[in-house]
Q: What sequence folds into this?
């Protein structure tokens, strides 16, 4: 999602996935730049940020159009993909995250199977048809006759 206006930024940063592209961060207000800083500081799951700046960093800093705290956060988060072995590190990180997700999913399935077994042992059966409504063993309710007017 491309963000050119400050009004678009807040909603874009709330999404835990995706990419937020800001073509020129110096054109955003100071309050909008604070939103980016808070996102980087506090949101563990956040979209990937691709932030551009027209002109030199020092010029934007001296003019006051780029906040110091945002510059600090961006400098720390900068990644040089051309560095030796960086792509391997990223691939290993993604593989680790995928393995952790698979482990969490397997654990959730194991817990669900245990609960189903406990319910079955206690005499309660669960239907796997996808219907979450409970059905009574009583006879179905008679439907009222259709009334038509002439």
A:
């Amino acid at each position: 999602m491309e963000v050119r206006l400050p009004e678009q930024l807040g909603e874009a940063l709330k999404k835990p996935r995706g990419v937020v592209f800001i073509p020129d961060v110096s054109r955003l207000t100071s309050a909008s730049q604070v939103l980016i800083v808070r996102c980087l500081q506090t949101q563990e799951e956040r979209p990937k940020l691709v932030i551009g700046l027209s002109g030199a960093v020092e010029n934007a800093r001296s003019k006051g159009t780029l906040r110091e705290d945002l510059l600090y956060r961006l400098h720390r988060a900068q990644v040089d993909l051309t560095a030796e072995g960086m792509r391997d590190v990223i691939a290993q990180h993604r593989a680790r995250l995928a393995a952790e997700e698979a482990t969490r999913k397997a654990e959730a399935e194991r817990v669900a199977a245990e609960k189903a077994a406990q319910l079955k042992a206690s005499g309660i059966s669960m239907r796997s048809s996808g219907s979450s409504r409970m059905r009574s063993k009583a006879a179905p309710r008679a439907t009222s006759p259709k009334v038509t007017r002439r």
